Structures are given as structure tokens and as C-alpha cells.
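To: structure subgroup
Subject: Chain for Friday's discussion

All,

I'm putting the inputs and outputs inline so they're searchable in the archive.
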Amino acid sequence: MVTTEIPIAREAQLFNGSNFHVFIYTKTESLSGLHQHDYYEFTLVLTGRYYQEIDRQRVLLERGDFVFIPVGSQHQSFYIAGATRILNVGISKRFFEKNFSPFIPIDFSATQAYAIENSFLAYIESVITSRHFRENEFDEFIELVCFYVTNRLRHYRDDAIKDSVPFWLKITVEAMHDKLAFGDAALERMVQISGKSQEYLTRATQRYYGKTPMQIINNIRINFAKKQLEITNASVTDIAYESGYSSPSLFIKKFKSITSFTPNNYRKKINGCNNF
């Protein structure tokens, strides 16, 4: 039997003496394959969705989700749903164990996705899209995000335990990420896919996701639009129609209500944001 040695990404080669190793980038494929670290790491999804395989268990991450990967966990990424923009933070083993170890619960599981609050996600996005953010301030910001993430791990089980999402509803929401589904007549299509009445579907989405079907559709549309603004040169008008909106003005209004940016301002900020 042949045993394949798992590559190790080492802090000494990447951190250059710093406490953090940070990347903000849009990915369509994994270049590293299955590997492990001698440092701690978390990855937060800013736009899109992808799978992270951790210790042989595959986890789906969507916007606002993160995984925390401790030293030695074997993992790799799968970008089968297209381009995904992520914030990836490596934390020095020494720095983490000095400052954050007490936050990690005894029963912590690396093989699951954790969600952050929308308000904190909006704060993160506002910081990383700022062109005038100084390097020393960025270090302070990353330390704050690390504190939030590790504290989230500790309090995750303190949340009210939600009912398991029914399989039919998971499949319905998954299917709505297809462009053919979230285009024209998206709500009617969602009802059709679910096999339920609109009233029943609405009660289910509000119970399990805290959103109406139309809110879920708009989130999917805007998430798609953000990816197009990030990775293409298509006009706002073209992206509006491609995202399923009947007019550019409606698209701009909805985009701003969800992201706090106009599409053009979002594109300018993303294009001006460098990797760290």
C-alpha cells in the first residue's frame, strides 16, 4: 500500500515574522490541493460559494460563512460553483495560542461552517474595500476579526438550536442558484421547484432561513451580480438583466439596499482593493 505524504504549509516560509498571513482574492480553482498547516487558519466567504473538504468531510460555505482550521487538519477547496471571493487569514501558532486558545471550546468541530452576523460582515467589507486603510490599521482590524471569529466558535452552541432544514427546502434553495431559476418569474419557479404552495413555501423559508422566498431570490441575484462586477467588464445594465431584474434602476436600488453600495461604486472599490 502506497502512502501519500500530505504537504505542509509552514509558518516560517509565509509569515515573515508577522502574526498574520492574509489574502483577499477571488478564486475559481484550488492550486494547493490537499494540504495541512503548522499554523491556524480561517476562511470567510465574501461573495459566492464553495466547498471546503476538511479531514475527509466536505462542507458547503456561502456568503457570510467561515471555517476554522486548526493546526494539522488536512483540507482542500473545491470551487465547483464558480468564482468565489474569500478572506483567508493564517494566524501564527505562537500568537494564537497566547491570545485566542481559551476561546476554542473542548467540543469544537473543524468540519462545519459557522456564520457571522450580517452587520459584522458589512463592517468587514467596508474596511477591506477602503483604499486609504493604512497597513498598521489593517493589522489591528485583522486581530479584531480573529477575536470575533474565535469568540463565535465559543458561543456557537449558545444560539437557539434551529430545526433541521427539510431536504425538499434545501434542494429548492440550491436549485435557485441556477441562472435559469433566478431570472424572470423566479418566485413562480421557486414555488414550482418546491412542489408546495406559495404560502407553505413562505412559512418554511421564514422558519428555517428567517427570510421570505423573494428575499432569498434577491440575495442570490445580488450575490451573482457582485461576482460579475468583480470578474467581468460587463456594463451595469447588462448585469442587471443577467441577474434577473426587469430594469437597471430596480437592480441598482436593490443592490444598494443589500450592499450599501451602488454597483459602480462596488466595482471601483473592489478594483482598488489589493491583496494583503
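Points worth raising on Friday:
The chain has two domains: 8-158, 167-271.
The mean pLDDT is 86.

D.
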